[in-house]
Write a structure and sequence with these properties.
By secondary structure, the protein is of the alpha/beta class. The chain folds into two domains: 91 residues, Enolase-like, domain 1, CATH 3.30.390; 84 residues, Rossmann fold (3-Layer(aba) Sandwich). Helices cover 33% and strands 19% of the residues. The chain contains eight helices and seven strands. The chain has a four-stranded parallel β-sheet with strand order 6-5-4-7, covered by helices on one side. It has a three-stranded antiparallel β-sheet with strand order 1-2-3. The radius of gyration is 18 Å and the shape is globular.
């Protein structure tokens, strides 16, 4: 599983780093490390909670080792998983292999390419559409007015795409491995 590989890589740089602040917000989850670096992850809202406590450990997370919080990436609970992913993102920012760039500068999309986008990323849609033959956008809930297909359509279209734009949110809802499998023709 890709989440295990990310955890393994992040653990190699976790050392004795500790989280000094963790914020679980409506849009994003943030983890700050003791050296001031911060990682973000999207906060999914797909589940209904039966109480005002989203994570049982709330209020006791600051001060925990980053290596412990990383393991949360594999939890079923999407909010806990977001804490793990935000921790990984904070640690990756410590890595010398991290790249600072605009994603549009990194995508090598050609005029004959068909691109699949998992999740609707408004600012990317127009520029990618201008570069490729076809852009298929998949979202949990279809948005017909924006030509956004339901996520179930990925099974039909993604195997025929030369490129896929897949965000880390797929780690939170545990769909990334299946999506990468659908892309295997071009890996």
């Amino acid at each position: 599983m890709i989440a295990d590989e990310i955890c393994e890589q992040a653990l190699s740089i976790a050392q004795e780093h500790r989280a000094t602040d963790i914020r679980i917000g409506l849009g994003y989850t943030a983890v700050a490390l003791e050296d001031g670096r911060c990682g973000l992850a999207y906060t999914l809202h797909e589940k209904e909670y039966e109480s005002c406590t989203v994570i049982a450990e709330a209020g006791t997370l600051a001060g925990r080792k980053a290596s412990e919080l990383l393991t949360w990436m594999n939890q079923v609970d999407e909010t806990a998983c977001a804490v793990g992913l935000a921790t990984a993102n904070a640690l990756i920012s410590l890595s010398q292999n991290a790249a600072e760039s605009d994603i549009l500068d990194l995508l090598q999309v050609g005029p004959e390419d068909t691109v699949g986008m998992i999740g609707y990323f408004g600012p990317l849609v127009g520029p990618i559409k201008k570069r490729c033959r076809t852009l298929h956008v998949f979202e949990r809930k279809a948005i017909p007015d924006l030509d956004v297909l339901p996520d179930s359509a990925a099974k039909e279209f993604l195997p025929h795409c030369q490129m896929a734009v897949i965000s880390a949110t797929t780690l939170l809802n545990h769909t990334i491995d299946e999506l990468l499998f659908l892309c295997k023709k071009h890996l």
